[in-house]
Amino acid sequence: MSLLLFSVLPFSCFAKEYKLILKDHLFYPAEIIVPANTKLKLLIENQDSTPEEFDSFDLNREKVLYPNRSSVIYIGPLSPGRYEFFGEFSPNTARGAVLVEGKTDADN
What we know:
The protein is mostly beta strands and about 110 residues long. It has one domain: Immunoglobulin-like, CATH 2.60.40.420. It contains one helix and nine strands; from the N terminus they run αβββββββββ. The strands form two sheets. It has a five-stranded mixed β-sheet, with no helix packed on it. The chain has a four-stranded mixed β-sheet with strand order 2-1-4-7, with no helix packed on it. This is Cupredoxin domain-containing protein. InterPro entries: Cupredoxin, EfeO_Cupredoxin.
């Protein structure tokens, strides 16, 4: 019975949260360091008065970030490496990366 309960728990129960702020068309912090093989919850607060679209080919994610609102994006678990993201409406300034550090299952 407990296995059945475990299988229906939402992804968010196991995700570690990281906060990003979008202000003046820049992500703060521009880089976040996270552990490998961990489910992540990115809480992104858009403090600008205009919308932005979070976009990442590396993370296979895109989401509209409405002005003066917070949005959530779930990612992972990820292997060690650098995963870049950007704001589609401000690609020259709104740039960032998720830096994944640690061992993979293959390293054990």
